[in-house]
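Reply to dn_fold:

You asked what the input looked like. This is it:
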Amino acid sequence: MKNESKKANAKLTSVLAAVLIIVVAIVAVIAVKTKDSGSLGTYSCEIMSGDNSSTVFEITFNEKNNTYKENISVGDKAVELASGTFVMDGNKLTLTSDGGDVQNLVKQGKYLIAKDYLYEGEIPDGDTFDATCTFKNSNNVVYSITFKADGTYVQDDNGDVSEGTYTRDGDWIKRESSSGTSVGIDYLIYSGRITNSYYIKK
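and this is what came back:
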C-alpha cells in the first residue's frame, strides 16, 4: 500500500513538474512577443524654426480599435490633420485616412519611417562617401543632396542651394551648413537610402 502511495505521489510530482515547465515556456513566449512588438502609442516629428519655435507633427495610435489621429502643433495651437484606421503587418503599417489617403510606414526601433518619402540613391558604407540622393514630391518638386568623400555636401532644394560638411553616426547623417543657417532635420538611413520624414516614439 505504501509503495503504491509513493508511486502515485511520484507520478503526481512528475505531472506537476511537466505542467510547470509548459506554463513557464508559455509565459516566456508571451514576454518575448510583448517585448518585440510593444505598444505603438504616440510618435512625433519636431521641426525647429529659426526663431526658436517649432512645428510638431504627431501620430497617436489606438490599438484597441486600430484607429489613429494625426495632429500638427505650432506653439500652443494644435490642429487635427487627419484620422482614420491602420493595419500592422510585422513592422509595416498602412494608414488609411477617413478621406482615403494612404500612408506607408515602417517601424524601426523607436522610429516610424515614411516609406513613400525615401530618397532615390544608395548610401555606401563608410564614414564619408560619394553619393547623390534625390526626391521628387507629388508636385514634381525635386530635392537633391550630393555627399562627397571629403566630408562636404551640396544640397539643392528646388533651386535653393546650400553647402557644408557632414558626419555619419551609424544610421544618421548630420550636416553643418557653411553659412551657419539651420539645416533642418537630420537624415536617417533605412535600407541604404536616406529620409528626413520619420517620427520618434514619445
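Residues 51 and 182 are 11 Å apart (CA to CA).
Hope that clears it up.
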